[in-house]
Amino acid sequence: MAVAHTPWQQLPAEVHIAVEKRLGSAYTVQTSDAGANNGTNATLTLTDSTRLFIKGQFGRAPREFLDPVADPQDGSDWWGADWGPVDQLNEEARINPYLPAASPRVLWREEVADWHLVAFEWIDGRHADYRPGSPDIAATAQALADLGACRIPPIPLPTARDRWGYYCDRDVRHLLDGGGTLLHTDPAEVNVLVDAHARAHLVDWAWPAVGPGWINPALWGLRLVAAGHDFADAAAWASEIPAWAEATPGAVKAFTRAEARRWTDEADRGTYGADSLVDDVLAWADFWV
Where are the alpha helices (DSSP H) in the chain? Predict the structure, then answer.
């Protein structure tokens, strides 16, 4: 379900005071409807024209550390039953120092009046356009290739099996094992910003994982299908990512089936945007059968 959104102007006065104190400057606010899972978000412009992007969540303090709850093949959840939006925001901040250079860096964090805020570098860009013929496709391919070259962060992270094992047939779960690549897990158009120099920036790292590098382009491929590409074209673009060379037909088949089941589950739960994606992800999975 989508997180209840609170416009920046409606946040408690204590939040506004703390942010202004942190910035050492008055600021103007530009709000956005982007980010269905943000409790609040805004672009702040300081008196010297410096800009930054802030997102926040309301509630309890985030979990101090992460550790697998149990082997996901028995149906348990790596994240735990109490995992929530505050923890997702904490993940973004936790993974941030280890991301590719193009991803905006965290500037500071603030906790006040039960609001947990994270301030990011401002990226002067727009959401990517994955429709056939868009130059943003090549830019995103480069961003995913750069991601594949990242070192694995020295912090606890879920694995591909943790993320998708529950939705995999038991006899093929091992195909998700191994690999030493940082996974974004949701390279949707809204999670990629393209700047005036045609550079793509991966944002919204609420669900990072570690696993085989070919998973990043496999996930991107289904987003290309959703944007109007035929299956062969989407697969061809996926093959532009070096890690795709490590994929086997059996592994891609097992993974795309698991992702299709996951999105069907999300649609049944009423997750924002899931209904519009289910048919495409099912078709992408069928392409590999």
Answer: 13-23, 85-95, 136-148, 160-164, 215-226, 231-238, 249-269, 274-287
